[in-house]
Amino acid sequence: MIKISPSILAADFRKLGQQVEMVELAGADMLHIDVMDGHFVPNITMGPGIIESLRPYSNLPFDVHLMVQEPDRFVKPFVKAGADILTVHVEASCHIHRTISIIKEFGIKAGVALNPATSEDSLKYILDDIDMILVMSVNPGFGGQKFIPKTLEKLRRVKEMVGDRPIDIEVDGGINLHNIYDITKAGANVIVAGVAIFHANDVPDMIKSFRESAAL
């Protein structure tokens, strides 16, 4: 089943709580929250305080994507803030297995993200420890970028590696109604979309169209 995870990076921050309520009512399955520190990526977004303030607005799983250096330091604050899934980058952790173990000790799901130029081989020895793989289809740091076509090849290889393990395969970056079918056919089952959803004239209809296009 395809899960839609709208990225609040593209939401209207002047009314963020209402925007979160809107996508939940529109049929979203998860809420994707991008955390950037200005070091691992050239942008700064939000800290645990904002996530904690959003928690009363939604019952959706909070899919928190940490684009930060030394992610171990941030696990506890974001779990306490309300994260249900915490995804860290293999490029940002010196000891990715240790980072995953720290996340799991808090009783939430652990995800691992791969930048476009990072090989899926880095997942080989942690596949049995993770709940989600996030394949970045743009270079992280900013919303509204174009999908990198080579991502489809990586998705197929990741899907083959995962096999029958109960691991979600998520894709983030440049996803729209024109490429979502190819993306899900290649192996993704969690779709992150920011601009395409939050900037749509009719958000419920856009989420419905995403599901329909994915299943063509």
Give an overview in words.
The chain is built from eight helices and eight strands; from the N terminus they run βαβαβαβαββαβαβαα. The protein is α/β, with parallel strands linked by helices and 216 residues long. It has one domain: Aldolase class I (TIM Barrel, Alpha-Beta Barrel), CATH 3.20.20. Strands 1-8-7-6-5-4-3-2 form an eight-stranded parallel beta sheet. Helix 2 packs parallel to helix 3. The model has no long low-confidence stretch (mean pLDDT 95).
List the keywords.
alpha/beta, TIM Barrel, 8 strands, 19% strand
Strand order of the largest sheet: 1-8-7-6-5-4-3-2
CATH fourth-tier homologous superfamily: Aldolase class I
Fill in the CATH topology: TIM Barrel
Mean pLDDT: 95
Structural class per helix/strand content?
A: alpha/beta
Q: How many domains make up the coordinates?
A: 1
β-strand number: 8
CATH architecture: Alpha-Beta Barrel
Distance between the termini: 13 Å
Instruction: Give the C-alpha Rg.
Output: 16 Å
